[in-house]
Give the backbone structure.
Amino acid sequence: MHVRVVERGALRAPVASEPRASLIATRRLCVSYGSTSALSDVSFSAASGELIAVVGPNGAGKSSLMKALVGLIDHRGEVSLHGRECHHGQHRHSVAYIPQRHDLDLDFPISAQAVVASGRRRFRRAWQRPTAKDRNAASAALERVGVAHLATRRINELSGGELQRVLLARALAQEADVLLLDESLSGVDQLTASALIELLAELAGGGATLLVTTHDLDLARRQFARCLAVNRTIVADGPPAGVLDAATIEATFARVAEPVPR
């Protein structure tokens, strides 16, 4: 385990060296909502095949980080994919974002199959209808996450765990290089969470890069090889044994700022 130490005022926290051959990276990333700073000076990189837990208190900017990475919100600084800087959300096709449940319009009358098929938009013009290849890809993604039997079910009829599987299937159909999951393991039963973690590990093994925000520190310790501790900036970055020690948890969670806007 290679860890370097940086000093942030009186705090000394472990920060892992950057992975080689980064797939996605940020450099001095900043996000603001009006006069409120959500993220400041965020720099990190993630290599192909990494499964990374992003931890921190409510209002720490974890969701803002996800939205900046996928290009959904304005930001300063750099976001790069495959070593090339991205601008104005042009990286959305290569990055799949699974938002928190309360950010979704669950009253919209759409089926699970249609949700997953929407991930195929990157492969056709806006005016073109889904092809047989798109429909087959959506069906295969639903099958892979174990919810093919829910294809015709409307999303507002799904349980929390079923919805997360459908959203993950959409990301698979999108064939994105990077998957960002915002609290996707929250509000699901333990059996579902374990099955989802197993699938995420399988995707990482296939070369995808995954960042998963979570409040479950025990889960982060047990199931992830790397953690980012975030509180308006990166407090610590490295293996869970270093990032989730008592001192770093205190530094990350003791300084809770006013929640940032969503």
User: Anything to note?
Assistant: The radius of gyration is 18 Å. Residues 190-205 form the longest helix (16 residues). The helical segments are 62-70, 112-117, 132-144, 160-174, 190-205, 217-223, 240-243, 246-253. The chain has eight helices and twelve strands.
